[in-house]
Amino acid sequence: MSAAFQFDDNPCRPRHFRPPPCTPVVPDGPAKRALEGCRPRLFIATIAFLAAFGVIAGRLVQVTLLPSGISVPRIARFESPPPPALGRADIVDRQGKLLASTLDSPSLYADPRQILDAADAAQKLAATLPGLDRAAVYAKLTSGKGFVWIKRHLTPDQAYAVNQLGLPGLQFQHEERRVYPYGALLSHVVGFTGIDDNGEAGIERGLDDSLRRRQQPMQLSIDLRLQYILHEELARVVNDFTAKGGAGLIMNVNTGEILAMVSLPDFDPSHPDTLDPDHPNWTIAERMFNRVTLGDYEIGSVFKIFTTAMGLDSGATSMTGRFDATYPIHIGRFTISDYHGKHRWESVPEILMYSSNIGEAKIALAVGGDRQQQYLRRFGLLSSPNIELKEVGKPHYPAKWREVSVMTIGFGHGISETPLQVATAGAALVNGGVLRPATLLKLPPGGAPEGTRVISQQTSDEMRQLLRMVVLYGTGEMVDAPGYVVGGKTGTADKVEGKHYAERKLLSSFLGAFPMTAPKYLALVMVDEPHPNKWSHGFATAGWTAAPAVGRTIVRIAPLLGVQPVDESSPEIVHALTPESMQGKHVEAY
Predict the structure, then answer these.
(1) Mean pLDDT rounded to a whole number for the chain
(2) How many Cβ atoms sit within 10 Å of the Cβ of residue 562?
(3) H or E element that contains 466
(4) Fewest beta carbons within 10 Å, which of 16, 29, 194, 393?
(5) 340 and 202, same structural domain?
(6) SS3 label, residue 491
(7) Is 10 contained in some domain?
(8) Domain span at residue 147?
(9) Candidates 301, 347, 460, 536; catalytic one
(10) Among the three residues 196, 219, 242, which one is the final residue of a domain in this structure?
(11) CA 202/CA 314 separation, integer angstroms
C-alpha cells in the first residue's frame, strides 16, 4: 500500500475510524497564479456593486423625499399625516375664549424641470386656485429652477382640488397658518403673523418669542364681551358724527388690566393688506394704526384733572381755593380764554366742573413749572407707555418749559399723550393714588403689582368728588348712566397740523370711572374729527360725542362686571361725593 493510503495504527483509535478525504492542493504553477489573480478582480467587482446600489438608493431618497436640484428639509406629501404638535401657542381672552390659533395648512410648490406641459399646468392651476395669475404661474413653471412656490397656505378643499389634477412636478409642504376667529374685533390687540408665521403686529409681535416657546395658551386680560360692546359703541359714535376715526379702552383701575381696547378704523388680521370695501377711503396704513397706544394727541381738557390733582396734592391750593377767572390771560402773543366763561372768581371745584382754561392755568402757575414736571413724570406722562405691544408712541412736550408752557399744559395744550397713558394716569387719580402699569395679560388673583404712589389717598378722594360733580353739574352731564355713580371729565381740543392748530378739526374725549364711591373700572373714548349733526344741535364737542358713548358703554358693561346699580340720590352717596366746600351751596348749572 502506498504512503498516500496508509492507516494510522494508533491502538487507541476505534477500529471503524477512517480519516477524512484529503483536501485537494493546487500545485504551484499556472493554475495557482490564475487563482491568485482573480482575487483583486473579485474585490473590485464587489466595491462596484456596492457603489451602484448606493447611487440607486440615494436617487430613490432624492426622488421620493426631496425636490430635485436643491437641498431643503424633508417635505411631506399631501397624503402624509400632519405634524403632531404646532409651534405657536394659542391666544385666549380672560374667560378662555379662543382669539388666535394655528392650523396645519399645506402649501403648493413645483419643480419646473418635472413639469411636462407648463402652459397646460398654468391654466389648470389658475382655474383651480382663485387669485392666481396664469401668466405669473407660467413664468414660474418655465423658470428652469428646481423649486418655486405656487401658492402658500391652501385650504383643505384647494389642496384636494390640486391633488386631483394629477400634474407631475407639483408637491405639497405642510406649513402652519394662523387663524383669528373674531376677525377685526381684536385686530389691534392680538395683531397678526406674516406668511412665515412671524409676529407682525399686536400681541403676536410684542410677545412673539414667548408665543413660540409656550406650550399652554397665552391668556389676555381682554374680556371678549366687553370688547364687543366697546367696539359697537365706538363705531356708533364714529358713524353718527362722520368722524375720521376713534379710540377707546376699558381698564381695571386697581390692577391695570385692560379689559377692552378698540381703535377705529381696524383691519382683518387674516387679510391685513386688503382695503375695506365698505370704507374705501380708509388706507391700509390708517386701518393698521393703533390710536390707543401709538397715536399721541393733545387731549385737551381731560388733562385738567392732572393739573387739579397736583394743585391739591402739592398744597398749592385746596378744595376751598379760589382763582380769578374774570378776564382772559394775555401772555406774549397768546391769549388764554374760556369757552363758556363765568367771568368771575371760581372755586377749585367750579374750575374743573366748568372746565375753565383760565382757572387751570392759574392753578398750574401756583404749582410751578418744576413741580408740574415732577408730577407729570410720576404719572408716566413724560415717557413712552410700557405695555406688551411694540406699537407705542411717545409724548411730546416743550423742550424749554417756559411760563406760557406751564399755563397751556395746565389745560391740556402744548403737550401730547397717547390715550393709554392718559387712562393709566387717570386710574391712579381715583384708585387711591397708586400708579400701576397697564397690561394686556391676565393677572392671577391677588397678583396686581404693588405700583407707585403718585398722590395721597386724600387727594384721590377729593378727585373722586370733583369728577362726580363734573358729571352731575358740569360738562359731563350727558353721560347718562343712572345708577352707576359715574364720574369723569370731558376734553375737546383743536387738532395740531404741523406747527399750527387746524380750524374745525376737533379731538373729543371723555374719561369716566365708576362707581365713584369705590372706583373699579375706567372707560375712555376719543373721537377723531367728529362733525356736528342734527341731534347735537351743531356741536361736536366731547359733551355731545364722547361722553354719551361712555355712558352707553357703562350701562351695558356694568352688569357683566357685577356692578349693581344703586340709588344715586341716597343721602349717603350724595354726602360722600360732595366736597365740603360745596355742601349746602347752590351749584350753577353749566
Answers:
(1) 87
(2) 7
(3) helix 457-473
(4) 16
(5) no
(6) strand
(7) no
(8) 91-219
(9) 301
(10) 219
(11) 39
CA gyration radius, the chain: 39
Average pLDDT over residues 432-440: 97
**Number of separate domains in the chain:** 2
Q: Are 568 and 576 in contact (CB under 8 A)?
A: no
Read out DSSP for 299-352?
A: -GGGGHHHHHHHHHHHTS--TT-EEE-SS-EEETTEEE--TT---SEEEHHHHH
Are both 505 and 459 inside the same structural domain? yes
> How confident is the model over 517-571, as pLDDT tens digits?
999 999 999 999 999 998 888 899 999 999 999 999 999 999 999 999 999 999 9
Distance CA(416)–CA(413), nearest Å, equals 8
Identify which of 354, 332, 334, 335 has the alpha carbon closest to the alpha carbon of residue 345.
Answer: 354
Q: Which residue has the cell 410684542?
A: 206
- Residue 417 DSSP symbol: B
Which three three-digit cell numbers place residue 337? 380764554
Shared-domain flag, residues 381 and 521? yes
Beta-sheet pairing, 170-179 with 192-193 = unpaired
Whether residue 457 lies inside any domain: the answer is yes
Mark whether 208 and 302 lie in a shared domain: no
In degrees and rounded to multiples of 5, residue 120 shows phi and psi of -65, -45
Whether 448 and 567 map to the same domain: the answer is: yes
Place of cell 411717545: 394
For residues 161 and 249, state if they share a domain: no
The CATH number of the domain holding residue 176 is 3.90.1310.10
Position 257 scores a pLDDT of: 98
Instruction: Summarize pLDDT for 303-322 with one digit per residue, the tens.
Output: 999 999 999 999 999 999 99
Q: Cell 408740574 belongs to which residue?
A: 372
Residue 323 lies in a domain: yes
Task: Please confirm, yes or no, whether 210 is among the known catalytic residues.
Answer: no
Query: What per-residue confidence (pLDDT) applies to 78?
Result: 39
What pLDDT, on the 0 to 100 scale, is given for residue 174? 76
Do 203 and 250 sit in the same domain of this protein?
no
> 186, 264 in Cβ contact below 8 A?
no
